[in-house]
Amino acid sequence: MTSNDIPANWLILGFDEVFSQISISGKKVKSADVLTEGKFPVVDQGRSFISGYLDDASFVVSENKPLIIFGDHTREVKWIDFPFIPGADGVQVLKPHPEIDTRFLYFFLRNLPIESRGYARHFKIVKDAAYLVPPFAEQTRIAAKLDELLAQVDTLKARIDSIPALLKRFRQSVLAAAVSGRLTEEWRTNSPPMDKGSELHQQIKNAHIAEGGHARGNASNPTEEAHDLSSDDLPDSWDIAELRDVCVPGRPITYGILKPGPELEEGVPYIRVADFPGNKLNITNIKKTSSEIDQQFKRARLLENDLLLSIRGSVGRLIKIPASLEGANITQDTARLSISPLISTDFVYWALLADSTQRRMKNATRGVAVRGINIGDVRALQIPLPPHDEQAEIVRRVEQLFAFADQLEARIKAAQVRIDLLTQSILAEAFRGELVPQDPNDEPASVLLERIKAQRAAMPKAKRGRQVAKLS
Fold first, then answer.
1. 3-state class of 122 per DSSP?
2. Mean pLDDT computed over 106-113
3. What whole-number distance in Å separates Cα of residue 363 and Cα of residue 357?
4. 381 and 449: one domain?
5. Do residues 231 and 370 share a domain?
6. Is pLDDT at 390 greater than 70 in this prediction?
7. Residues 198, 334: contact at Cβ < 8 Å?
8. Stretch among 20-34, 140-154, 303-317, 349-363 having the lowest mean pLDDT
């Protein structure tokens, strides 16, 4: 950067002309020693402004004027105007020269382009930077204007950032209405007579009987949590079905491969809980096992449109299997659900994701080291069963409302990106000299520099340490 790139009355100074470093030797505390309450806040280089508290005053750093903390590893910049205790490694405490506005330098560091080096150190970039210094009066005007504008941006960002949580609650409200009958209450009133859920339930039971009965496993005594759905809370035309009732006869709910063996380049793909975070399938890291192991667990092979439910660790995750994974297998941490053609697979999908069903699964979860839900409790898990036509209407309405929420969420993400860019745009404008007008009556920055030099010259020379003297 040259003087041609900045306003005529600005200067370009070095780190040592605008900052001195505060020594915190012997004052840094480790994260493990930090308390949740105490007299003095602990400030480290982490994203959280305050990482904890301590009561020991001997660790406190206190100055009459505000200080700036730079995170050597994290690149975090923090404004400190209170006594504090510095956190462990990576905290650089900077004291601006008294002739330069501290708030101006704080914003300058926030605008300084520092490319991430991972957990490597970044402070050398700060020390080697060229610092743009306008007249002092203009510094204060810039800092005041940035405080005003960025406060407005922060308010807008907080409002935008709160919307995803509202959308999450909206989706759960939709599902709660869907599985209770409230979502289609008006539809039922205006629709012609239809079969009852109990009649549909009996049809699929008959299909199971014709196939040879349920594969009950150890589900004959389900836990109370998996079996506590009440018909009193449902429309008269609805019924309650156990999850095994709504599956294809001959394809009972089951888990998959216990030990997949070594990972192979070629083989049969198998899906783990880790492959569908947030109820979305991620095929990037799907692993493969041998055909011999797959053959041992052929009962768990997948068909297109099967549902896959996580039953260990993060219980309750759910995906619908695409055609590309037909014939794949699953692990013991998941349960395969092949839904009967008499039932809407999509309705079962949404019913399982509803908060009420998720809560019953969580309540039925057992274990210490690895928590999970017993496969018997999965089979006995109760879901509401509307008539078939109403299932289709529920799915249509849920998908329509969720599509609306997805569109809004995409717009919110785009808005969040624009807001982040807006902050950087405002900062960049400020340090091009374009945010506030220059005043020809301001004391020139060159006079400010002369005072800085005079004050530095008048300061007593620091004594060299023993090690330095020895080397000379």
1. coil
2. 95
3. 10
4. no
5. yes
6. yes
7. no
8. 20-34
